[in-house]
Amino acid sequence: MASQEMSQKLFTVSSAPLWHSGRTVRLTMIMTLLALLPAALMAVFKYGYDAVEVIAWAGLTAVVTEFAVQQLMKQKPTGDDFSALVDGVLFAFLLPSTAPVWLVVIGSALTVILGRMVFGGYGGSPVCAPALGWCILTISWPDFMDLNAMLLSWDLVEPLSELKYFGLDTVAAISPVSLLLGDNLGALGASQVAAVILGGVFLLGIRQVRWLIPVSFLLGVFVTGLVFNILDPNVYASPFFHLLTGSTMLAAFFLMPYPSASPSRQIPMLIFGFFGGVLVIIVRSYGIYPDGVPFAILLINLCTPLFDMIAPKPFGGR
Fold this sequence. Notes:
The protein is an all-alpha fold. 62% of the residues lie in helices and 0% in strands. The protein starts with a helix and ends in a 10-residue tail after the last helix.
């Protein structure tokens, strides 16, 4: 008896004293929604009620789906932390503004179910949930995800589709300023490049997002795009074109730094971001889809456990 009591006393373990930073999931999501607000307003200004409808249905479906699955799993509801709402809005930003309601609802539900809840909920997913939802819809219903086909009522072009199907000459007249201001066709929120950059800078400024992944991702896109452009400038667009088209900027600030699907150490974050950018150009150049950003994100997400193995050696270790 005495030895057991001594053993219990010797091996008593308690946690170290901690100081809470004050940052919560709810506050983080509120800041993310604020960062997405400028792009959402620009989308509504450009596409009107269609944009409001897509964003509203995507956000509502994400929240309701999370609540329903949590009830089935006997988990405590977490709708008040707004994480499902953020995923729904990010998913909506990748859609055409004229996407039918049934497509938005199915995609948003799959975003939450397959991108979050099958892994236990927010914080457990090894992939970026909005990118996964977009990829499922693009593979399953490509006609409804075709930006040119879904936005025929606008007398504009979708730059990446023009480049993919008609060659470099068709996008030569598109200026970087028009790409920044969203004066071309594109996904609902992702095409509002200047507004997305503004939101990303806001997140960097409040230190909610560290600069490592966004900067290395954009560097990867730029360097790889430059290499392709140098190899054949008559076929491959300039790196600036790739930076300002599709969902590149949305990925840099909102999708690539997805908390549970990205590394947490500095060197892994830099490698993760850079090779994610490399994959964007490879998928766009050799893939069948004009904008390969979500596919590139999912591919690089699968490598996150490998990148996390890159860690400093313990003091005194060999």
